[in-house]
Specification:
A hairpin with a 2-residue loop joins strand 13 and strand 14. This protein is of the alpha+beta class. The longest helix has 19 residues. The chain has 2 helices and 17 strands.
């Protein structure tokens, strides 16, 4: 009986937590967890220039990154976009929220009133080099804050992640040496061995 009561209380608390949340970021119609990362690859625009856009201007009906209210029909938004890494050689970086577009280099803060949802239009226009840009968009409505990381990638960010993942795999790979310090390939026979895994070294006895 107590177990059922505890389960019911937990379900009610979870429901209240969801209900209490006033807004979310969505990407392509899916709710994003706080601190989620959206990666957008560079594409050619109508003029043949390479661009990255959180919402496509060529296909405006396709919903990209959106800020959506879960409660109420309007709200006052405080929003800040901050670029933390940028190796793209882009002609223009612009952020369009709250009814106007503004160009910027590193960071920009806005306050505006939104309806039920607001498209997050952030663009890197006229990209001339391989590289990537990492930006964090933080939004506060009332006492609630959420943020999303935005990555614009022109054939570099994905490659860097793959290299780092391989380096991590090699770093954590287990290496076995015999007692004379010679590396052992394959399954070791019986005896005493030194095992190195990442930064840890231990002695083991194989039977």
């Amino acid at each position: 009986m107590m177990k059922k009561f505890f389960t019911l209380c937990m379900c009610l608390l979870a429901g209240l937590a969801v209900q209490a949340q006033g807004f979310v970021f969505q990407y392509q119609g899916e709710n994003l967890a706080d601190d989620a990362t959206v990666v957008i690859a560079a594409e050619e625009d109508l003029f043949g220039d390479l661009t990255c856009e959180t919402n496509s201007t060529m296909n405006p009906s396709e919903e990209g990154l959106v800020l959506k209210l879960l409660r109420g029909t309007s709200a006052t938004v405080n929003a800040t976009i901050q670029i933390t890494q940028n190796t793209l050689d882009a002609d223009v970086l612009q952020w369009c929220m709250g009814g106007n577009c503004q160009t910027f280099q590193t960071s920009l803060t806005k306050q505006f009133t939104m309806g039920g949802s607001e498209k997050v239009q952030f663009d890197a226009i006229g990209i001339h080099s391989k590289g990537y840009l990492l930006a964090t968009l933080k939004v506060t409505i009332g006492l609630e804050s959420h943020q999303v990381d935005i990555v614009f990638d022109n054939d570099e960010y994905t490659g860097i992640k793959e290299i780092k993942n391989e380096e991590l795999r090699i770093k954590n790979e287990e290496t076995v040496y015999d007692i004379q310090g010679r590396r052992v390939q394959g399954r070791p026979s019986s005896g005493v061995y030194i095992v190195k895994e990442g930064g840890h070294i231990r002695k083991v006895a194989a039977k």
